[in-house]
Amino acid sequence: MENKNISAIRRWVARWKKAGPELERIRKEELAHVDVRQAIESLEDAFQSAILHFPPKPTSGLVEQQRWYKRLRH
Known about the structure:
Number of strands: 0
Structural class: mainly alpha
Largest sheet: none
């Protein structure tokens, strides 16, 4: 990788490192002021659509998961 690219990547990482704490502060502030009732109500149509188009499976999928683990172990 060229020194120019490495330098650009280092600057990019430094900017995100500096921005990270401020973004985290903003995220926490926004979460502290969320109207949970309104958020749930606004997602109700999407939830009902998902249930209609992708009904829950009769099992949790854990048996299938264990089957995959067994295959990958050997």
